[in-house]
Amino acid sequence: MQIHDLIxxxxxxxxxxxxxxxxxxxxxxxxxxxxxxxxxxxxxWHPNMMLDNAHxxxxxxxxxxxLRNPSSYFTFINYLHQKQRLQDFINLKTFFPSRxxxxxxxxxxxxxxxxxxxxxxxxxxxxxxxxxxxxMLLRVRSLDSTGTARERLARNLIVSVGGVPxxxxxxxxxxxxxxxxxSNSYLREIERHKEAKxxxxxGAGQSASEIFMDxxxxxxAPQVDLIMRGRAIKPSDDSPFVNEIFNTDxxxxxxxxxEHDRVSLLEEFWHTNYAAxxxxxxEQIFNVFYQQRVTGNTRHRFxxxxxxxxxxxxxxxxxxxLLRDLNGGREYxxxxxxxxxxxGYGRDYHKSLLKSLSPxxxxxxxxxxxxxxxxxxxxxxxxxxxxxxxxxxxxxxxLSVTAVRTHEIGQALVGMINDPVAKQAENPxxxxxxx
Length: 435
Hints:
The chain has 14 helices and 22 strands. The protein has helices spanning 13-25, 76-82, 86-92, 99-111, 186-190, 206-216, 240-243, 249-256, 259-269, 279-295, 349-353, 389-392, 402-417, 420-426, and strands spanning 3-4, 6-9, 34-38, 117-119, 121-131, 134-144, 149-154, 156-159, 164-165, 180-182, 198-202, 223-227, 301-303, 306-313, 319-325, 331-336, 338-341, 345-346, 361-366, 372-374, 381-384, 432-434. The strands form six sheets. A five-stranded mixed β-sheet has the order 1-7-6-5-22, with no helix packed on it. A five-stranded parallel β-sheet has the order 4-3-2-8-21, covered by helices on one side. The protein is α/β, with parallel strands linked by helices.
């Protein structure tokens, strides 16, 4: 079986950026055999949130390459040049392209690595391959779209699987109910509910706000309740000094702090990234409710300072939410045809994916270069992308540091892969999988 220098799990923006970094390192004389496995049948970036008029919240200059190498072929600007749209984009006078266009840019970049990515395969587990008492390689087991199991060997691994939809505890008993779905699958699932008359949207962030406006503008005109614990929808703070926390050098600052200081930093700036829609979007929602007051047609409700305490499926149809008004403590129920959970994402899926390797890993803690710390007898390097917010800062889950982060990971990889002692040690003995 071929032994890859690196296998990447997931082929979203982070691992595409890494593939670009490693491709450009060939010009420096380094050739890393990297292969990627992606569970989606083809490249797609949040396909179910590609709403009309949705724009990026981050500058196009924070693309897959510019902050690492402005002269890269894979910059957003060169993408526009290749598509013969550069001049027209300049005339838009914006730093924030539509989400549709940025998705097309990412797909364009990913297409250059089709021969190095297996689409439609879901990684099931990663096993240790030992020589005597040392783990020398990793065996990556996956299942393709036909149900065929596949195995590949790697000297190193990088996990970039993105976030897993977060479902609040009170909704867990009805997790399989088709009338309750996460924003991650919004466009696909809302098609099942074209006739829905009353819909609840739970959340206070960009996704909840975009979904509210999308439902408001739909021709079937459903009634929508926007439910959130906060008193107001607060805009993201993108002022220049605050935005410095997303600079690449701020990662060093965060990592060098004590755990207590890191927690304080995350709490201080939490609202720059979470539950923080664009101001223009907030103004649109405010205008919807204002116009309702003008016309007297109260089609939608803004249930601020409310929380869902329990959920039940009614025998005669409908989802019943028990709501608590946090201002007065009053509880009452409301029935909906569908409920959309714009409740964010969890970032710890890598722990279950790498469960069989946990005896070798130091409580899944990482070093500055995003490498999981491991026992002395564990030779492979395992890197994480998008799962290190607690140690590397709020920018870790965003595009802001992606280009530079992949440079740092690439540098670490090149050093290990070109270590002749390590390669000599792995070859003489046939590896045995440890389950």
